[in-house]
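Thread title: Can someone regenerate the structure for this chain?

I was given the following input by a collaborator and told the matching structure tokens would be attached. They weren't. Posting the sequence so someone can regenerate them.
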Amino acid sequence: MADSCQFGPCSEAFQKMKHELLEEWHAFRTELLRDIKLHMQGLPTSDATSPELAKVQQDKGQVAEEDEGQQSGDVAVTPQAASVAAAPRVLELDQGAEVTPPRKRRRVQQDETPNPKASGVQEEGDRWLLPNFQICEQLGRGSYGTVCKAVDTRKRRPVPVAVKKMANVFAWHPADAKRALREVAILSKLKHENIVKLCDVVVPCRTSACEDIYIVMEACDSDLDKLFCSGINLMPRQMKKLTYTLLCGVNYLHSASIWHRDLKPANCLFNHQARRLTRDLTDHVVTRFWRAPELILLQKNYTEAIDMWSVGCIFAEILGMRKGMQIHERGPLFRGAVCLPLSPDQRECWPGSDEPEQHDQLNMIFDILGTPEPEEVEQLDGDARSYVERFTEREGKGLEFPGVETTAMNLLRRLLRFSPQERISAAYALQCGWFDRVRSQAMERPAPNFISLDFENEPEMNESRLREEFLELWM
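Best answer:
Regenerated them for you:
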């Protein structure tokens, strides 16, 4: 009996290894949360004031301005069963306009009592009519509203939650309101530990006077963007865990026929257990640094491979946190200053410019990966093909990550293929041997079925239908 347990769970060697791994993990978690907290409070961390980091942060800030004029497509539907593929999983709009809900707020009715805890959280004149929740602080603004940290005063939820207020949602353009409804409806159907959990949909009143919708979601401690800007380094196992959980979340989305379309570090959340959570399903089509070539080139028939390019870009930033790397050496892999033809002030250069912009996003990609092969260029539409052919042919300097394991580099190269047909899927990437020490079969499970929405094929939804669908989610 003793022999059979020599290397089993009851053996001394096994227990010793388990103890050492737990100690290593708890030490990392404590240090990570401390540094992230300091960073979020604006306190100095190592190299936090470096001019290189400041430049990266400035570049990231400029991306939002550029993207105001970018185009995005309609919701993509796979041919397999009218299953929904959400535009950016941090949603945006078609024909280029980002959702900008009306700023004018309605007056509070006499029988409504504003939440006093919410004063000062949002812009002047805005009130949060959210019974049973105490609003703590504003976390940020998204395409569809303001997000605040809150606590359920009924104590049903012992931990804080994130609440998104969609103000005056029924006064938006019907297409915009439908996209907001789609985001909430999709979240309500996703059940995976690596996807942000939708806790509740709160409609303050069930009458026609109700104009605001509150989306209550799982709150997380931080996101990968803040982690990348911190002064800490990651051990190999920690880099594997972050990348693996990212892939598990994306694999679940794709198996449900959902395409995120805006994967970037700021949309990759994690909690105190370093569990990675995907958030924000929108119609926005990927922020510049993480945007796939086929989106840059306005190819209409793109697939879920656009998400895999974004995963590759995020994976490269995770590898940039390895031991020995300084904070000024980090940042997006492809850091273009403009993105033709999506940059509003550069569109006149498409496709007639004689020479592509030196700091164009696509040019930055070619500097590293090299220009595509002729057979890859032939797969592009006419204008896109002509534009790519104007770039100076080059091999590229290659992906340089000294000290990174060969299996990890092979995975990165297969994620960052120019041709979407040659880019590997999330399910295929999860089979990489690099993840063997952190693998969990339960996390790799696909969705039980494709997600479809009953209202998706309705050409137009009036206010009455929108209210009906939102109320159905609430009940």
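The beta strands are 76-77, 84-85, 133-142, 145-152, 161-166, 198-202, 213-218, 222-223, 268-270, 276-278.
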